[in-house]
Write a structure and sequence with these properties.
globular; 277 residues; 23 strands; mainly beta
Length: 277
């Protein structure tokens, strides 16, 4: 999930990711320009895309599953992949990557008719931040002191909708928006859709990737009508300029765009807010 502020159509976000596997990317973003324009309807184009997949140390990842629409391939020994002359979207083409031990990678980009595009995706390690007893309130803490807090009996099994009982494994990662390689790491891109349905660009004050799993690896999610509390530590270089409130955004993995879903409040050198799903 992301916390974003709206400057002039650039990215400012605090990110929490939530995708089809109940991984959630949350971002705190502030739009970096004025509204860029209304939502653009998909425009099919035929184009090609190649890319390289690496880990946090820039080592190539081979054997990862890569998807774009209905097209599927795997990365080779050099971490490379390619889709030739496939149907993509002119304004927001999406490539996703899955590899065991890492959060799902998502990259969004524009593609002109007949173009050849190249992207680099740096996957985020899926590290256990903590385990919480489902029947009691509990908190998982990340190395940068960001936290994820769940209330008692607020989590369900995604496949069945049944309230989950047992230990909840909270996998979470902080994404530093000031990192030199943020363009390769950020889920999606800096494109977003605000609450007024305008297409905007974002500037981020912090991001977090989160996935909840049961003891047997079952995918969990927050029950409808309930929320989880997030505490985002602001990067030191952004703390002084961070506004009192910023929008909270989550990534729609299908169209690759961030969607505005609330606000967070600044408290000292951090932002606090609640998320659903």
């Amino acid at each position: 999930m992301n916390f974003f502020k709206k400057p002039s159509a650039l990215l400012v976000v605090l990110l929490l990711l939530i995708n089809s596997s109940c991984q959630r990317d949350i971002d705190l973003y502030v739009p970096d320009n004025n509204n860029v324009g209304q939502i653009l309807n998909p425009v099919p184009v035929h184009a090609s895309v190649s890319g390289k997949l690496v880990d946090q140390n820039d080592n190539a990842i081979s054997g990862a599953m890569v998807r774009s629409g209905t097209n599927i391939t795997t990365t080779d020994s050099r971490g490379l992949f390619r889709f030739n002359n496939i149907t993509m979207d002119k304004y927001a083409s999406v490539v996703t990557v899955e590899y065991n031990g890492y959060f799902k990678g998502v990259r969004t980009f524009s593609a002109a008719e007949g173009s050849s595009n190249f992207i680099k995706i740096k996957l985020i390690p899926k590290i256990l931040a903590g385990s919480i007893n489902a029947s009691a309130d509990g908190t998982a803490t990340l190395p940068n002191n960001s936290t994820v807090t769940l209330t008692a009996n607020s989590v369900v099994v995604k496949a069945t909708g049944q309230v989950y009982a047992g230990a909840i494994n909270v996998y979470a990662a902080n994404i530093d928006p000031t990192a030199a390689d943020i363009a390769a790491i950020i889920p999606g891109s800096f494109q977003a859709i605000d609450a007024a349905d305008f297409r905007v660009l974002l500037k981020s004050y912090g991001m977090m990737a989160i996935q909840l799993e049961g003891q047997s690896g079952e995918i969990l999610q927050i029950e409808n009508g309930k929320t989880a509390k997030l505490h985002f530590t602001i990067p030191p270089s952004l703390s002084a300029s961070a506004p009192a409130t910023v929008p909270l955004w989550s990534l729609n993995e299908t169209d690759g765009l961030w969607k505005e879903e609330g606000q967070v409040l600044k408290s000292g050198n951090a932002y606090d807010g609640n998320v659903s799903h």
